[in-house]
Amino acid sequence: MLHLNSLTDLILPTALRVLKPWFKRSASNTFSPVSLFTTSCGGSMAKTKFEYVRKFETEDTCLRNCWIVVRLDGRNFHKFAEDHKFKKPNDDRALHLMTRCAQAVMEGLEDIVVAYGQSDEYSFVFKKESNWFKRRASKFMTHVASHFSSSYVFYWKDYFHDQELLYPPGFDGRVILYPSDENLRDYLSWRQADCHVNNLYNTVFWNLVLKGGLTNTQAEERLRGTLSSDKNEILFSEFSINYNNEPLMYRKGTVLVWTKEVETRTKNAKGLVEEKGNDTVVKKSVKKATPLHCDLIGDKFWEEHPDILMGH
């Protein structure tokens, strides 16, 4: 019986003679194995004559010494919320699901120092000196968007027990660079102010519709040109709602910060070990992305979390 190597030695020369005319079409060598494939030194991936197309790729390296912010927004989420019967004006299930997805992203990329979310959006702040993805903006944006979107589908049933996911959600993303700490704080303040404005409007609007009996168009007309004080007055006088007593998650959004927690396990691992019977108890300090519902515009939060602006 012929061994495989012997069989190869018999077939290979014949195959090369048969295929040679196809590869070497003319004396000018316009198409040949040599012209098609050239191998670089050191046994790295083979290069081809088509590799020149990489020159069309644009350079998108983020400027150094800048905070890198990736913001995601739900695509066509008004329809998505309607199709999936979200509660109005706020659905705790949807808000908690968004935060769970943000935690998954944050815990997968420890260069994120803080995240902020409200409604169908989330912003992730990468430390200034981050070198993830060689600081390529497209990599930051696509990784965060894809991880967040897949997490939304993955964790859906944990929050919407009785509601089937009818179709996958979509999130668009953008990358913004902020050169100073003040710029970054102003950005997060802007998003939180947006949360307040939108939530106050939605709270009044849906109370007018669901409790006041107005149509959507009538509610829009009623609120046209009103100030924050007017909206608060409508809530209090007509629905006995003090807006300041609404949950902080609705009014302030959600901030994700790093905290350290001690995990106790009964298996071998590095850490502080204590003997309990036949079990080995291991205590290990781990970082967790912890949600807070607090004010970002004032100084208190930043004084309590100085490590954020230090990039830790």
From TrEMBL:
What's the catalysed reaction? a 5'-end ribonucleotide-tRNA(His) + GTP + ATP + H2O = a 5'-end phospho-guanosine-ribonucleotide-tRNA(His) + AMP + 2 diphosphate + H(+)
Kindly indicate whether the keyword tRNA processing belongs to this entry. yes
Molecular function as annotated in GO: GTP binding; magnesium ion binding; tRNA guanylyltransferase activity
Listed cofactors: Mg(2+)
Domain Thg1 C-terminal, by residue range, is 182-297
Q: Which Pfam families match?
A: Thg1, Thg1C
- Keywords, sorted A to Z: GTP-binding, Magnesium, Metal-binding, Nucleotide-binding, Nucleotidyltransferase, Transferase, tRNA processing
Known EC number: 2.7.7.79
**Looking at the keywords, is Manganese present?**
no
| Gene3D superfamilies in alphabetical order | 3.30.70.3000
Q: Which residues bind Mg(2+) 1?
A: 73-74, 120
Amino-acid positions noted as binding GTP in the UniProt annotation, renumbered to this chain:
73-78, 119-120
Q: Where is the tRNAHis guanylyltransferase catalytic domain?
A: 50-179
Binding-site positions, Mg(2+) 2:
73, 120
Q: Which GO terms describe its biological process?
A: tRNA modification
Q: Which domain of life is it from?
A: Eukaryota
Q: How is the cofactor bound?
A: Binds 2 magnesium ions per subunit.
Tell me which family the UniProt entry assigns to this protein: Belongs to the tRNA(His) guanylyltransferase family.
Q: Which PANTHER family match?
A: TRNA(HIS) GUANYLYLTRANSFERASE-RELATED
Q: What does this protein do?
A: Adds a GMP to the 5'-end of tRNA(His) after transcription and RNase P cleavage. This step is essential for proper recognition of the tRNA and for the fidelity of protein synthesis. Also functions as a guanyl-nucleotide exchange factor/GEF for the MFN1 and MFN2 mitofusins thereby regulating mitochondrial fusion. By regulating both mitochondrial dynamics and bioenergetic function, it contributes to cell survival following oxidative stress.
Q: How does it assemble?
A: Homotetramer. Interacts with MFN1 and MFN2; functions as a guanyl-nucleotide exchange factor/GEF for MFN2 and also probably MFN1.
The name of this protein is: Probable tRNA(His) guanylyltransferase
Q: Which organism is it from?
A: Polypterus senegalus (Senegal bichir)
Give the classification, highest ranks.
Answer: Eukaryota, Metazoa, Chordata, Craniata, Vertebrata
